[in-house]
Design a protein that fits this description.
The structure is a single chain. The protein is an alpha+beta fold and 74 residues long. It has one domain: Multidrug-efflux Transporter Regulator, Chain: A, Domain 2 (Orthogonal Bundle). It is 42% helix and 14% strand. The chain has a three-stranded antiparallel beta sheet with strand order 1-3-2. A hairpin with a 2-residue loop joins strand 2 and strand 3. The longest helix has 9 residues. It holds the Pfam family HTH_17. One of its GO terms (molecular function) is DNA binding. This is Excisionase family DNA binding protein.
């Protein structure tokens, strides 16, 4: 377990700063399985799903995928 020095440092009011939940990202294969489509379809929807390029791969924020599915797609 790592120790985050910044999170343990008290603020001016004496309270520890709020921690953000890490963003959840999915691969194209995970999104394809959830949506029951091919990976190529997921790649075509990359912009609509809010894909982010990390290195050479695309990652899809879970919130963006959920929003797309809730809206019924386009």
């Amino acid at each position: 377990m790592s120790y985050d020095r910044r999170a343990a440092r008290p603020t001016a009011l004496g309270a520890a700063p709020a921690r953000r939940e890490p963003a959840s990202f999915l691969t194209a294969a995970e999104v394809a399985a959830e949506m029951r489509v091919s990976k190529m379809t997921v790649y075509r929807l990359a912009e609509e799903l809010g894909a982010v390029r990390i290195g050479r791969s695309l990652r899809y924020p879970a919130a963006g995928v959920d929003q797309y599915l809730a809206g019924g797609g386009s």
